[in-house]
Design goal:
With 229 residues, the chain is an alpha/beta fold. It has a single domain, classed as Spore Coat Polysaccharide Biosynthesis Protein SpsA, Chain A (Alpha-Beta Complex), CATH 3.90.550. It has helices at residues 15-24, 42-49, 62-72, 90-101, 117-122, 137-142, 152-161, 181-185, 187-228, and strands spanning 2-8, 28-36, 52-56, 77-80, 85-86, 107-112, 133-136, 168-173, 177-178. The strands form two sheets. The protein has a seven-stranded mixed sheet with strand order 3-2-1-4-7-6-8, sandwiched between helices. Helix 2 (42-49) links the parallel strand 2 and strand 3. Helix 1 (15-24) packs parallel to helix 2 (42-49). The radius of gyration is 18 Å and the shape is globular. It starts with a strand and ends with a helix.
């Protein structure tokens, strides 16, 4: 059985469709919408669509909203969905969830398929960034809280999944659409939010994959010197 967690900030226009398709899936037991300090009707629309709604007093960012949802969730298989992605079906949600439900992966990420083949192919060479992901509660709890601010959570989950035997996989998901930030907030504010998201991703990637690797090498060298002494 699966608990769906949807973090949302001012997503009244799309969140109802997201919840409706999740509730139609036979493996989904509950849908939790975490309203991250919205100023619109996100919470009202979510309740009408059948979700359990948690309302945060202030906008704390994606990671904080996900954490609140996970703590409220009843089950150990979790499905995270972005509230601004539309076009999902029961079949596309199965593509994301079943590899975790069946025990093949600790986490499985759904990446929005592009219209052109070459764009889909280059996705195999870039960091797996996307909010549509199924994972185990164990993976969530193993991810250090120091690396879970804002949009950094997705890279942190990827990194932590490598410590598990089953690791992480991903699949290209057809037929979904993303309501980009520039359309939601206007060009100026939307661009600012996009740049902030990119900064989050770059910061956590550098800290984990560059500084973290360097720190492990220094620690290994120090250990070798100690053993020789």
């Amino acid at each position: 059985m699966v608990s769906v967690v949807i973090p949302a900030f001012d997503e009244a226009g799309t969140v109802g469709d997201c919840i409706a398709v999740a509730l139609r899936h036979p493996d989904v037991v509950e849908v939790i919408l975490v309203d991250d300090g919205s100023s619109d009707r996100t919470a009202e629309v979510a309740r009408a669509a059948g979700a359990r709604v948690l309302q945060l007093e202030h906008n704390g960012g994606k990671a904080a909203a996900l954490d609140a949802g996970v703590r409220a969730a009843k089950h150990d298989v979790l499905l995270f969905l972005d509230a601004d992605i539309t076009g999902h079906t029961v079949q596309t949600l199965s593509l994301i969830m079943l590899p975790v439900i069946n025990g093949r992966f600790e986490m499985h990420v759904g990446i929005r398929a592009r219209k052109t083949i070459w764009l889909n192919r280059i996705l195999h060479f870039f960091p797996i960034i996307g909010g549509e992901r199924a994972l185990t509660r164990s993976l969530w709890e193993a991810t250090p809280h120091a690396h879970t601010h804002g949009f950094q959570i997705e890279i942190a989950l990827n990194y932590t999944s490598k410590r598990f035997d089953k690791g992480m996989g991903f699949a290209l998901i057809p037929g979904t659409f993303h309501r980009i930030k520039e359309k939601k907030y206007g060009i100026a504010l939307g661009l600012f939010r996009r740049l902030r998201m990119i900064a989050d991703v770059l910061a956590i990637s550098f800290r984990l994959y560059v500084l973290g690797r360097l720190s492990r090498r220094v620690a290994g060298l120090h250990q070798k010197l100690l053993s020789r002494g």
